[in-house]
Write a sequence for this structure.
């Protein structure tokens, strides 16, 4: 144990090497598939080859008699309820949600290629795979529809009886009359249909579970690659399996990336638990193949949007009207409807003070896998809309796009700011407002770094090499740190539950401090950053802080990690727990030093009597004595052990300016990203090295959407991009060195002044690259082109534009 | 059952009986409990399963275990020369924040080691090209490139002695 009298310097804000890394760099990480329990059986799932079909019958006879097969299950064998719908489109308007969620296995019909219809459990994975091939399903194929716009047309295939015209919900936000009037009376209106295409998230580790039913205690344990073990326990118990919550234990071991995909309640969770019980308590392991991951784990985005932006000839934006169709798949994922409503339409006006905003969102069923939160979740889609709209508007009035942005930024003295379609407009008296911001310095810094003033010369130079150079801005904001529970309760948007966070701190006899929490890392380095925060709060060495997480048995309830909420909500809970620890230590120090608690002052790890600097106890002397409790005063409980729950009073709002520079080969249409400059303001940083890493990864994903990635279904619902051979996960050689810089505007919402950074890169970058490509093509008369900008698409656009000019 | 094979794995002779269809990665993970080598796809694209076979980087999901009969295999577990003696690439990935979730990391380190054995002073471009067969979804590759570069420098400056953690 390090001597606290050495007064360690605070690790907060420093680029400290991650404490979790030694296990990962030596191959000692433990992901779900690395866990081997005695007598484990292995599961494989038969998935629908059709996008839309009725199941006439399933014959499992051949499969059941295959070597090593222990059991074969079909949907009718499993008495569980369908998966829960935890975040329907909500709000004061009493929105009707026409809900259909998957069952553990489909019973009567399938709604997408890849929906699970039967499962085999066998002694080995190979035997299970072989037996799945021997299940005979009598299918009645039905017409399919994969496009949201086509699904709404008359005569389109109908997916669900309770969802006429394939409509999940029709939802709106903002002042319709005011916005209509602003647009009708505007000097300039620009209209554009834009598509935010479907993506496959691609964490490098797919999903997987091990289910174990203990017949001796009638308890279930599941090891799951999940971002939300506590929520899964709640949902599985209360909504799916119909068993008491305390009978399930959920454990997330090391998680190999998630990006939203591992938030949700998937049918396979229930399936492995059901199978283990059916087998009398043998553990049952199911590991998703990459092909299954593409077919049956959530996809992201998939919006078709009609935008209208209105303003004055001198650059003031006066209205924004948006109609969006959100493709939510064949059945709904856990919070699918919440993404294109709360997390999209409510932040559509971005960092601009647009007085009139109105959005209509229609959720649509199609014969595709469900769509839910993928890194950024609604906010990349919103940023894409508003940032493309600002460029379209600037082009229409012939004003510089940086100047149009500058003209319309919310000003620093206007915070807290209620945006007109925003989270603050919801009824019930619980306001969410944009907490803080100072947008111009970030934009100016980025413009200076990229050399915006020399753009014309750079374009001319590139043109001489047969390249069309384009530069694109994205002056984004995002909402992080969801969310005040009162707001959720009042508005009816959010998990259908609260969204506070929790942390427990125990100071053990040996001076080691164990921190547990309800959040759940997937690569963000929480073991390091929580330790930095608590070492700072208690003025102890980081080595003495042990951070544990991810097991519902042994951590306080929490809502998990997503939406860039861990630092602002989760770590604030940890700080509150540390405050309670310090308060109790102060009271016990007063007892030890025979002084009044009010007379004890805390200086780092020393608790001293004011005015008598020699009368003092160290934090660890106090902990040791209080944990022993040989001399505890009347009414004071032994042990330094405190739990805190933190309900954030507001969300946090990172912002910044990202600038992409691309070169388009005029002959081939190939787009190269040649520079990328990002100035981000994520508030204070707990570990700047980790912050930069989060930005790098987010930017790469957003660039990937703009330039290469696209999930494509054929018209009959086959996933054409069904493997990594077909879906363009970006490679190292496709990126330039990313140039990062920062401004720092601490969030006033939490004591650390942090905002969250997990999604910022992905939210900002897609629009920056899109604007850059359109800027490059603008000399040809092209004012918009939908992503991704593959060579073929860009070449065709160039040829078409040139033909049009000829 | 199956075929009998002999391999030297991380310096230790191993004997195995494997099904003819068993891939090397499964033999390593399931039969030898070397779970540091990961499976991230089913089309030999992601590179998470990269190991060294007779000194060259190989995607072990693409090679049958029987094809590795008689070879020397090195996995991520064999890269450190001792409990406190990380390979310079391991040290550099740690110091440069070249990993987040860690799932691609073992394969990435094995591929980078293969590169540095052939090219001890690679440019950024050469590093990016060399790791094209290894996907990472967390880092945007930037700190991986920095880590490989730092490791190359460390290995050039101390070619025989691995950097101690």
């Amino acid at each position: 144990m390090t001597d606290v009298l050495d007064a360690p310097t605070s690790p907060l804000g420093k680029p400290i090497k991650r404490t979790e890394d030694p296990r990962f760099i030596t191959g000692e990480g433990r992901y779900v598939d690395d866990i081997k329990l005695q007598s484990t059986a292995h599961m494989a799932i038969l998935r629908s080859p059709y996008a839309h079909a009725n199941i006439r019958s399933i014959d499992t006879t051949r499969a059941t008699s295959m070597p090593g097969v222990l059991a074969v299950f079909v949907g009718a064998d499993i008495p569980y309820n369908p998966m829960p719908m935890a975040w329907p489109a909500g709000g004061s308007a009493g929105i009707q949600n026409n809900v259909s969620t998957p069952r553990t296995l489909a019973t009567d019909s399938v709604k997408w290629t890849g929906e699970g219809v039967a499962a085999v459990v066998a002694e080995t994975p190979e035997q299970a795979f072989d037996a799945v091939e021997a299940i005979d399903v009598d299918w009645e194929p039905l017409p399919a529809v994969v496009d949201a716009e086509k699904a709404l047309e008359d005569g389109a295939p109908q997916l669900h009886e309770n969802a006429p015209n394939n409509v999940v919900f029709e939802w709106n936000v903002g002042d319709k009359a005011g916005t209509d009037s602003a647009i009708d009376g505007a000097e300039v209106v620009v209209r554009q249909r834009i598509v935010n295409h479907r993506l496959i998230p691609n964490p490098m580790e797919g999903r997987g579970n091990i289910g174990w039913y203990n017949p001796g205690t009638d308890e279930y344990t599941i090891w799951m690659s999940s971002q939300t073990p506590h929520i899964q326990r709640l949902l599985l118990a209360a909504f799916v399996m119909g068993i008491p919550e305390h009978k399930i234990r959920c454990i997330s071991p090391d998680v190999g990336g998630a990006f939203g995909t591992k938030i949700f309640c998937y049918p396979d969770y229930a399936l492995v638990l059901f199978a283990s019980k059916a087998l009398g308590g043998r553990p049952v392991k199911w590991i998703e193949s990459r092909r299954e991951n593409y077919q049956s784990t959530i996809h992201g985005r998939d919006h078709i949007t009609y935008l209208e932006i209105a303003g004055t000839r001198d650059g003031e934006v006066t209205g924004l009207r948006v109609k969006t169709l959100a493709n939510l798949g064949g059945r709904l994922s856990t919070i699918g409807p919440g993404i294109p409503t709360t997390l999209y339409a409510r932040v559509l006006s971005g960092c601009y003070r647009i007085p009139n905003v109105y959005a209509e969102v229609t959720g649509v069923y199609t014969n595709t896998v469900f769509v839910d939160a993928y890194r950024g979740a609604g906010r990349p889609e919103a940023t894409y809309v508003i940032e493309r709209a600002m460029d379209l508007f600037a082009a229409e009035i012939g004003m510089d796009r940086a100047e149009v942005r500058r003209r319309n930024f919310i000003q620093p003295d206007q915070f807290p700011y209620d945006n007109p379609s925003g989270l603050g407009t919801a009824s019930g008296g619980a306001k969410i407002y944009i907490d803080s911001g100072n947008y111009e310095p970030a934009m100016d810094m980025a413009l200076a770094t990229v050399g915006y003033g020399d753009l014309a010369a750079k374009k001319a130079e590139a043109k001489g090499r047969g390249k069309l150079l384009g530069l694109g801005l994205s002056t984004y904001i995002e909402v992080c740190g969801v969310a005040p529970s009162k707001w959720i309760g009042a508005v009816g948007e959010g998990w259908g539950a609260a969204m506070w966070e929790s942390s427990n701190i125990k100071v053990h006899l040996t001076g080691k401090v164990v921190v547990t929490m309800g959040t759940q890392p997937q690569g963000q380095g929480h073991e390091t950053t929580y330790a930095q925060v608590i070492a700072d709060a208690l003025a102890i060495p980081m080595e003495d802080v042990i951070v544990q997480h991810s097991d519902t048995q042994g951590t306080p309830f929490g809502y998990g990690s997503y939406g860039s909420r861990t630092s602002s909500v989760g770590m604030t809970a940890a700080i509150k727990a540390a405050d309670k620890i310090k308060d109790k230590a102060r009271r016990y120090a007063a007892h030890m030093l025979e002084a009044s608690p009010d007379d004890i002052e805390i200086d780092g790890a020393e608790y001293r009597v004011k005015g008598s600097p020699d009368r003092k106890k160290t934090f660890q002397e106090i902990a040791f004595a209080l944990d022993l409790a040989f001399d505890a005063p009347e009414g004071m409980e032994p042990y330094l052990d405190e739990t805190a729950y933190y309900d954030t009073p507001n969300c946090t709002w990172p912002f910044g300016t990202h600038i992409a520079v691309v070169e388009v080969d005029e002959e081939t249409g190939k787009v190269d990203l040649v520079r990328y400059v990002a100035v981000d303001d994520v508030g204070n940083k707990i570990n700047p090295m980790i912050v930069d890493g989060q930005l790098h990864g987010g930017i790469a994903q957003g660039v990937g959407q703009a330039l290469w990635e696209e999930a494509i279904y054929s018209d009959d619902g086959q996933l054409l991009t069904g493997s990594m051979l077909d879906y363009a996960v970006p490679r190292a050689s496709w990126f330039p060195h990313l140039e990062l810089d920062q401004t720092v505007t601490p969030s006033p919402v939490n004591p650390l002044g942090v905002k969250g950074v997990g999604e910022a890169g992905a939210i900002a970058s897609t629009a920056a690259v899109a604007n850059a490509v359109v800027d490059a093509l603008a000399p040809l008369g092209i004012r918009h082109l939908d992503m991704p900008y593959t060579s073929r698409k860009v070449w065709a656009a160039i040829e078409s534009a040139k033909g049009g000019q000829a | 059952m199956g075929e009998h094979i002999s391999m030297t794995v991380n310096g230790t002779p191993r004997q195995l009986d494997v099904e003819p269809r068993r891939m090397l990665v499964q033999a390593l993970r399931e039969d030898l409990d070397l779970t540091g080598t990961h499976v991230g796809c089913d089309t030999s694209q992601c590179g998470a399963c990269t190991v060294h076979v007779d000194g060259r980087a190989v995607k072990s999901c693409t090679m049958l275990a029987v094809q590795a009969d008689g070879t020397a295999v090195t996995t991520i577990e064999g890269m450190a020369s001792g409990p406190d003696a990380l390979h310079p690439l391991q040290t550099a990935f740690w110091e440069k924040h070249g990993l987040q979730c860690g799932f691609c990391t073992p394969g990435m380190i094995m591929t980078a080691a293969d590169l540095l054995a052939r090219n001890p002073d690679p440019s950024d471009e050469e590093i990016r090209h060399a790791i094209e067969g290894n996907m990472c979804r967390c880092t945007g590759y930037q700190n991986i490139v920095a880590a490989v570069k730092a490791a190359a420098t460390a290995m050039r400056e101390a070619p025989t002695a691995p950097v101690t953690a």
